[in-house]
């Protein structure tokens, strides 16, 4: 229940990885400073709130997941409000403000928030505050911080107008009950026209909600020799200014060490997304040469003894641990090296000031320290400002304390972006950079997010090879930098590469890699179906596949599936298929050729029977002595075949699939398609962009991309 002495508003969050929840908790925390009470709930907890009868202002923080879908926690809510039988004034009484989180690297930026926002508007709800759309590509805080700053004035104004309306309605009711009924109807007073959307630009919307750290409190003078800022060092004016730092998040977790022994929880208990399957790795092949810039691996899993189902184009998730050396290093810094195998009990701290405090779902009540740090917490996560603020209190050195305050302050926003966010700094990097910082285990549990399972595209067809699942990935490398003194491999790809090293068939021996390994190595997976990135339902429809590098992965499954269909249904008509593939070097990392060599007995008929009718390959780093230089990138190859591409998309109702890197490929491919449509239709680019938008809307231009 909310306190009667404070004005209430309803605060809902819909989160996938914890970002939206963390921001909602920050809003809840700041509300008390402004004399307000936030009644906070996950949007999935529909038994704890009722928008149909809600009178107070509503604040919604919602993220976006997958290919523009609302997070899993919002699915039931979205389904409910999208009921087409709801009248257009269903939420006419509702005043709300919405903050959407997304990543502009992906096509449907903030679509989760936009979907809810649009539908609430269609059902008559009104904004009391402008919608904010925060972009994780450039830093959520660039929108989140000013949006929260402006929220308080908007809320107070909405609540004031609400009180005025209620007061006038009460007065009208009192007068009406004391007078004889008049022939004329007494019209209800409508004050909704007074509710103006309060813009973020309003001067008054910058009310202070943070603690001010005066320079007098910490007399820190920057060394004259250091003229450039770094992770551990600032320069004027930041080093000489008073700081606005966030309020200290309340502690709410207590860790009790236990002497008793036992067993750690099963990994499946950490996953809320669905059923997990522990499956053996039966094949591992390196698809690139040793001197290639990236190392690409193919793994095959045995799913025959499970009920795991998939279609070509689907993805699945691998449950992976943190790097063992990093876990040991963290235990050492925390002074817990000797206690890694000790069991601990995680509970909510008695008397905590955190509203609705509960043990995070991804944290088992009882496990070993090492299990917590290995399987539960994302120790590579980029620390949020609230975490930095909490670390200030664990830091003894005055200069280090001041620098951490700068990095979490409003004045230090650009330094935070440059030295922490853009540098991919993690907790270990911070603890090395600020050696006097000694956080408790409970603080890590409070602030480190859940260790997320990693998603991969399926590179096989269950119809073609029942009981097997293949996938391809690059081993991700993070080079050392100024803020991170050591290089690292990706959490999951580095672990998988190390796991399969004993059974790995090198590039040179690929042709002899038919046999399956007797390895007993197993990994835990769970399905993540893709609702749209599938073959056309009508096999006669032509389609184009664009998949440079490991982006070719789902298209191998497409072609295997199509080939099996051709064998099973000789009387069917099948449309033409185009594959545009690209990589750096013909001899070092020609992944498609390696697929053909590795599975040549399975795929030899790709061309013979017309499963693949057109293959266009380009190599971006190879030099050419040809008079006319060959295309370097897939978008160049598409332009060379503009007439065929336009024919398939415009005249034959074909599909267009893109898989691979978003930043360096997918956008360029999209631009190329606009150019092709514009040229072949003899229309301007705006018209071509509209056609492309219609193709996307019709689910005929589909992307499976990553940043």
UniProtKB/TrEMBL annotation:
Its EC number is 1.16.1.8. The keyword Phosphoprotein applies. Keywords: Amino-acid biosynthesis, Cytoplasm, FAD, Flavoprotein, FMN, Methionine biosynthesis, NADP, Oxidoreductase, Phosphoprotein, S-adenosyl-L-methionine. GO terms for molecular function: [methionine synthase] reductase (NADPH) activity; flavin adenine dinucleotide binding; FMN binding. Residues 274-536 form the FAD-binding FR-type domain. Its main location: cytoplasm. GO terms for cellular component: cytosol. It comes from the Eukaryota. It catalyses: 2 cob(II)alamin + A + 2 H2O + 2 H(+) = 2 aquacob(III)alamin + AH2. One of its GO terms (biological process) is methionine biosynthetic process. Its cofactor is FMN; FAD. Residues 9-152 form the Flavodoxin-like domain. It is found in: Cytoplasm. CDD domains: methionine_synthase_red. Transmembrane segments: none annotated. It holds the Pfam family NAD_binding_1. Forms a multiprotein complex with MMACHC, MMADHC and MTR. This is Methionine synthase reductase.
């Amino acid at each position: 229940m909310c306190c009667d002495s404070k004005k209430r508003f309803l605060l809902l969050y819909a989160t996938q990885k914890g970002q939206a929840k963390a921001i909602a908790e920050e809003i809840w925390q700041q509300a008390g400073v402004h004399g307000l009470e936030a009644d906070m709930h996950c949007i999935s907890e529909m038994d704890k709130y009722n928008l149909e009868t809600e009178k107070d202002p509503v604040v919604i923080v919602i993220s976006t997941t997958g290919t523009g879908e609302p997070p899993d926690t919002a699915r039931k809510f979205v389904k409910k409000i999208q009921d087409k039988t709801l009248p257009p004034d269903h939420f006419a009484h509702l005043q709300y403000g919405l903050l959407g989180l997304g990543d502009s690297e992906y096509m449907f930026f903030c679509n989760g928030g936009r979907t809810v926002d649009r539908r609430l508007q269609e059902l008559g709800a009104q904004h009391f505050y402008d919608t904010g759309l925060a972009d994780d590509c450039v830093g959520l805080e660039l929108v989140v911080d000013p949006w929260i700053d402006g929220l308080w004035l908007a809320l107070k104004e909405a609540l004031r107008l609400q009180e005025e309306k209620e007061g006038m309605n009460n007065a009208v009711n009192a007068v009406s009950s004391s007078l004889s009924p008049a022939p004329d109807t007494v019209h209800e007073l409508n004050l909704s026209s007074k509710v103006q959307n309060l813009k973020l630009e309003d001067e008054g919307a910058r009310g202070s909600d943070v603690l001010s750290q005066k320079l007098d409190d910490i007399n820190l003078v920057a060394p004259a020799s250091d003229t450039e800022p770094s992770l551990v060092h600032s320069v004027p004016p930041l080093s000489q200014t008073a700081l606005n730092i966030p309020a200290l998040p309340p502690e709410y977790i207590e860790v009790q060490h236990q002497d008793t022994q036992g067993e750690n929880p099963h990994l499946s208990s950490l996953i809320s997304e669905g059923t997990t399957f522990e499956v053996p790795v039966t094949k591992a092949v390196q698809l690139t040469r040793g001197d290639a810039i990236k190392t690409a691996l193919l793994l095959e899993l045995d799913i025959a003894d499970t009920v795991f189902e998939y279609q070509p184009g689907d993805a699945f998730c691998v449950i992976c641990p943190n790097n063992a050396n990093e876990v040991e290093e963290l235990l050492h810094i925390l002074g817990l090296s000797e206690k890694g195998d000790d069991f601990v009990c995680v509970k909510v701290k008695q008397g905590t000031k955190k509203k609705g405090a509960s043990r995070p779902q991804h944290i088992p009540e009882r496990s070993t320290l090492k299990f917590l740090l290995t399987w539960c917490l994302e120790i590579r996560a980029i620390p949020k400002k609230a975490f930095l603020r909490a670390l200030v209190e664990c830091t003894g050195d005055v200069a280090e304390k001041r620098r951490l305050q700068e990095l979490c302050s409003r004045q230090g926003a650009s330094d935070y972006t440059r030295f922490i966010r853009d540098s991919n700094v993690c907790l270990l990097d911070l603890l090395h950079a600020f050696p006097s910082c000694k956080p408790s285990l409970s603080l890590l549990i409070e602030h480190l997010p859940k260790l997320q399972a990693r998603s991969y595209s399926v590179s096989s067809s269950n119809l073609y090879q029942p009981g097997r699942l293949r996938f391809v990935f690059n081993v991700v490398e993070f080079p050392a930098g100024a803020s991170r003194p050591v290089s690292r491999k990706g959490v999951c790809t580095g672990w998988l590469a190390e796991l399969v090293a004993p059974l790995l068939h090198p590039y040179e021996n690929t042709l002899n890699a038919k046999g399956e390994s007797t390895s007993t190595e197993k990994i835990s997976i769970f399905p993540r179906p893709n609702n749209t990135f599938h073959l056309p339902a009508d096999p006669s429809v032509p389609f184009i596949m664009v998949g440079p590098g490991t982006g070719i992965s789902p298209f191998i499954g497409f072609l295997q599936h199509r080939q099996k269909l051709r064998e099973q249904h000789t009387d069917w008509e099948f449309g033409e298929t185009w594959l545009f593939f690209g990589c750096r070097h013909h001899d070092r990392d020609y992944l498609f050729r390696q697929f053909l060599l590795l599975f040549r007995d399975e795929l030899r008929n790709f061309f013979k029977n017309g499963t693949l009718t057109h293959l266009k390959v380009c190599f971006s780093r190879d030099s050419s002595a040809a008079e006319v230089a060959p295309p370097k990138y897939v978008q160049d190859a598409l332009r060379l075949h503009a007439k065929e591409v336009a024919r398939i998309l415009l005249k034959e109702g074909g599909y267009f699939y893109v898989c691979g890197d978003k930043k360096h490929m997918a956008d360029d491919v999209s631009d190329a398609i606009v150019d092709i449509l514009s040229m072949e239709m003899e229309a301007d680019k705006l018209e071509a962009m509209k056609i492309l938008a219609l193709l996307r809307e019709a689910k005929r231009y589909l992307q499976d991309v990553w940043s």
